[in-house]
Amino acid sequence: MITFNQKTKVFTLDNGSITYSFLLNEEGFLETLYYGPHLNEELSKESLRGGDIDNCSTEYFDTDSNKEKTFPDHFKSTTASLEIATHGYLDKRGAPIIIQNPTGSYQTSFIFSSYQIFDGIKELKDLPGIRTKKKDCETLEITLQEQEAPVKLVYSLTIFTGFDVISKSFQIINEGEESLHLLRAFSLELDLLSSSYTLNHFDGVWANERNWNRNPVVQGEQRISSNYGRSSHEENPFVFLSSTDASMTTGEVIGFNLIYSGNFTFRTFSDYSKSLRILYGLNDEDFDYQLAPRQKFETPIALMFYSSCGVDGLSVVCQQFIKKHIINQQIDHNYKPIIFNSWEGCLFDFNTDKIISYIKDSEKIGSELFVLDDGWFGRRNDDYDGLGDWHVNSSKIDLHRVIDYCHQEKLKFGIWFEPEMVNPNSDLFKKHPEYVLGYNHKAMTISRHQLVLDFSNPEVVDCIYQQMVLFLDEYPVDYIKWDHNRSIGEHYSSYYPFSQQGEIYHRLVLGYYSLLSRLTKRYPQILFEGCASGGARFDLGTLYYCPQIWASDESDPLQRISIQYNTSLGYPLSTIGSHVNNNPLTSYKTKAMIAFFGTYGYEMNPNNLKTSEVEELSEIKELYHQYHQSVVEDGVVYHLMNPNISDFVALESVSSNQESALLLLMNKLKDHDHYYSLKLLGLKDEYQYQNDLDNQVHSGQYYRLVGLRFSRSWFNEFNCRIIKIIKKK
Ligand code: DGJ
Predict the structure, then answer these.
(1) What domain range is 683 assigned to?
(2) Above pLDDT 70, what percent of the chain?
(3) CATH of the domain at 695
(4) Helix axes 310-325, 557-570, angle to 10 degrees
(5) Angle at the Cα of 528 from the Cα atoms of 527 and 532, rounded to 5 degrees
């Protein structure tokens, strides 16, 4: 799969479906040759230079010989397509790595020194990575040397079997005797010869996450980034470029994601030449990492997903790759229980009897895992107190009785934590005010009445770990919802000196991972669900530890359908935490059908459910038991009608054996009595399938080319239908 041709000096990564190749030129720089569908012909320097003219090369003054020199092989560093651009020279398009070396110079330029190719991928020390077996992928590791300073760079590229995915990352190693400053440490550079792309990204705000935005790539610089200290509501790290003629099912689309949960930057740069440089990695705003002698810095892993079958083609690659290589299948491959969460039903206002009555009534609608959300610990009766004091408020709740009751009823039990936060009123803050970010500042930003704990300080992480272990060793919980209800204001840590304050944003994320990885190792049976004021940390770093993430605090089905539709372009449905609540805008059935196209659960006061509502929800519960695991969790979703641009929505999820599919249709507005033909995707052409809309039997090819005929006047506005399409035996 990965080769190096000693004669032509070309590296090629190829999995039979995609090819990526680059040249090691005579100067020791790596020049990108090709990225796209599998190519039979091997490329060479000649294919790159074409009819290049003599005086095209870069010139420089060589101090050893005291002479002006020219790069020997017509290499023009200012316009070439590169794997790792230089900084501080004449190429101004942007470099992935910037180092200020001990002399103070910013010049950064890495020259090839050696390479190795091996099966599998190496694990990162402090960061989440890719879950693989050796046979799943192959890695090319290239070692380069900085020209002015004793700094080694290890550039890793991995290509995967059966997935059109390539990952990239760097390690920067200080081999000198003095500290240096790492001012930028991105994970990926990709230079493309054309900039005729649309930049697709997902912006938002609390309760309105991941709006699908499309802008043309323009000349100059464009940045999609977060500086909120978490991956954020405001932008999601999943970004893609679609060629200007691409559709949902045709054309070239290249997706990018980062296995990371903190600040990130995705940057495109195009100049008069209309070529495109893409850089992706840790946000370099206020980033200044002091690399001590012999210290190594590892960047998060960046992923590139490739499709020549349009946006839905890309989506399938992302969904399948994430399920197989990011999510911990040991936890996730067990059946996903239907969750009942207490939050929207009673907020902080509960006692033991109320919770037991909730559990009892939640069973009627099929709840299999009861989650006690915020409010069970410290002095937490509102959001002014309690965060940081992770012991049960036994005057409010008898948690042993609640858990025993659940287990006796054969229900699992889950609990809520917000480990990275503290209230100024808490006992923890009174004892350790220095544990917060921005300690000693005259004013610290407060948000939802809470401050942020300094997780860059290992002692703070330890303190929370000890408290959680004390609790978890006593109370047998099956699930943890891990919340994070504000973004970072002061990224100052009193634990570190002046010279290391540029490390804090990154170290906070490392603290988050260190706590999560210690807890998931110690309690492998617990299912962790990520959450951050709704969906502000929906990212691959979190998914590595938590197989599902609460997608948004917005459960109004009209908005919710867009959030789930857009999120599922880059992430599998099995990861998208979604519940039915008591929002009065639509029927329970509609809300349940939408929540079904996610993890599925409930949040309401179950004591108030009418018999007819219990019946409506019970129908969906039956459907859940029959199809959710095979079609929604293990299947693949296709995006047939887009809620962002149409008043009708269609999502289709197909089981991995292609024997069953469920089609979610939603009328946002009512329409005339005329027929639609909805062309389905993902079915097997030669199978025969019966649909339960008109009970007709047709081949997969018929559904693909002719489509399913129906009229939108058959159901009302705000109404949903789930149509079953099942293979005839
Ligand atoms: C924000 C979450 O998104 C909600 O579901 C809930 O857990 C609250 N936090 C509790 O404070």
Answers:
(1) 641-727
(2) 99
(3) 2.60.40.1180
(4) 80
(5) 155
Residue among 553, 555, 578, 581 to mutate when testing ligand 1 (max atoms within 8 A of CB): 553
- 473 domain-assigned: no
Domain count, the chain: 2
How does pLDDT run across 155-183, given as a tens digit for each residue? 999 999 999 999 999 999 999 999 999 99
Q: Is 84's pLDDT higher than 70?
A: yes
Look at the pTM and tell me if it is higher than 0.90: yes
pLDDT tens figures, 324-375: 999 998 876 678 999 999 999 999 999 999 999 999 999 999 999 999 999 9
Q: Is 342 in the pocket of ligand 1 (CB under 6 A)?
A: no
Contacts of 579 (CB under 8 A, 6+ apart): 339, 341, 344, 555, 595, 600, 601, 602, 603
| Ligand 1 atom closest to Cα of residue 416 | 7
In short, whether 553's Cβ falls inside 6 Å of ligand 1 is: yes
Q: Give the 3-state secondary structure of 66-106.
A: CEEEECCCCCCCCCCCECCCCECCCCCCCCCEEEECCCCCC
Of 282, 303, 325, the residue that ends a domain is 325
Q: From ligand 1's centre to the CA of 347, what distance in Å?
A: 9
Does some domain include residue 385?
Answer: no
Sign of CA dihedral 179, 182, 188, 189: negative
Three-state SS for 111? Answer: strand
Q: In what order do the strands lie in the sheet with 18-24?
A: 2-5, 10-14, 18-24, 30-37
**Residues shown for the chain:** 729
